[in-house]
Specification:
heterodimer; A: about 65% helix; B: mainly alpha; about 0% strand
Chain lengths: ~170, ~180
């Protein structure tokens, strides 16, 4: 057997599956649901590309983009929770938004989670449809954002530093 | 199931329909692509693992990244194999040898169940999963055209818009690459 025939045979045996394999109705239903959710991910990905970077925490950013695009976020987050510790980070990975900006937004989300109760409300839309300014305001440049986060993170204890590192690693791992 | 199950062009059409928001193609996509993933994961993930959930996860990943799918570089069928083999390779990578042995046992048991004989050792197929997951989609598409579709050098060249000599040379290079990294069994 020459090299090409050898590789051809291995290749074919690797992929072969029986033509008449039985698949349950339940699986087909789940596959249809996954396909529909995949389409929602596509829409969210497109909406994120159009929105560009916003100086806000990741969870707020995705919530706002999905809201504006009319995409129901809850089912997607629920699915991401099945396989990941942090559904927001898993969702960001699934739609492949730019890594450099995402890591800043993840850091902001983490910082926000450690702040006293209620700060998230600073981001909720006002009656006019515009988010209010706050420490992570949408007008911030990437550099403003980095400086602010570095200042906040310099006060983290070792546990919070480790948790943030773990969160960032869960995004960067392929 | 008809031709749509086997034809890469039909798979591509289904992907195009989804990208254009044609929801009427969802059931066909789920049945055809999801069905293939179901079979592949059932074959490769070891006993005790939820292979149906793994197939669903890969299906979601595949659909959710259709905006990066480029049918001029590789067919959806090739791309699905790429994502699925990466998932299986990720599963086994870094695990103890005993776990890889489980994969072998699983595949052998699967063959017995479906009365499909293999000519070559299972280690070779495990290697192929790993090797395929590391190839870029264009190279995988070339392998599929030559080995699955059994196209000639000139037919592959015409399909990919390259010269026959180029197609032959790329095939030879890929075969050598795979052959050189094949475990000695």
């Amino acid at each position: 057997m020459n090299a090409e025939n050898d590789i051809t045979a291995i290749y074919k045996e690797t992929w072969e599956t029986p033509a008449d394999i039985q698949i349950s109705i339940d699986f087909i239903k789940r596959a249809e649901e996954a396909t529909r959710q995949g389409i929602e991910l596509l829409k969210l990905s497109a909406a994120c590309r159009q929105s560009g970077f916003l100086g806000v925490p990741l969870d707020f950013y995705l919530t706002e983009v999905a809201h504006d695009a009319g995409i129901p976020l809850a089912p997607l987050l629920q699915r991401m929770m099945q396989s990941a510790h942090n559904a927001w980070v898993a969702l960001a990975k699934a739609i492949a938004i730019p890594a450099a900006e995402t890591s800043l937004m993840i850091r902001a989300m983490f910082a926000q989670s450690l702040m006293p109760a209620g700060p998230g409300s600073r981001y909720r839309r006002t009656g006019s449809g515009e988010p209010r300014l706050s420490v992570f305001h949408p007008q911030a440049t990437t550099r403003d954002y980095e400086v602010l986060l570095e200042r906040i993170e310099s006060n983290y204890n070792s546990v919070n530093k480790a948790n943030l590192k773990s969160l960032l690693e869960s995004y960067s791992q392929s | 199931m008809s031709d749509v199950t086997k034809s890469p062009d039909s798979w591509n059409q289904l992907a195009e329909d989804l990208r254009e928001g044609l929801s009427s193609s969802v059931p066909d996509f789920a049945r055809v692509v999801g069905g293939w993933l179901h079979g592949f994961m059932a074959k490769w993930l070891p006993e005790g693992e939820d292979y149906e959930q793994a197939a669903i996860d890969v299906l979601l990943e595949l659909v959710g990244s259709l905006d990066r799918f480029n049918p001029t570089k590789a067919s959806l069928k090739t791309w699905a194999r790429c994502v699925a083999s990466r998932r299986v390779a990720d599963y086994y990578r870094g695990r103890e040898k005993a776990t890889s042995d489980e994969a072998g046992k699983r595949e052998v048991a699967w063959r017995e169940k479906h009365h499909i004989k293999a000519r070559l050792p299972v280690e070779s197929r495990l290697f192929m999963i790993e090797a395929i997951s590391a190839l870029d989609p264009e190279d995988q598409e070339l392998l599929r055209l030559f080995f699955d579709e059994r196209l000639s050098d000139s037919e592959v060249a015409e399909y990919l818009g390259i010269t026959a000599g180029n197609a032959r040379q790329r095939k030879r290079r890929l075969v050598e690459k795979l052959q050189n990294s094949l475990p000695q069994t």
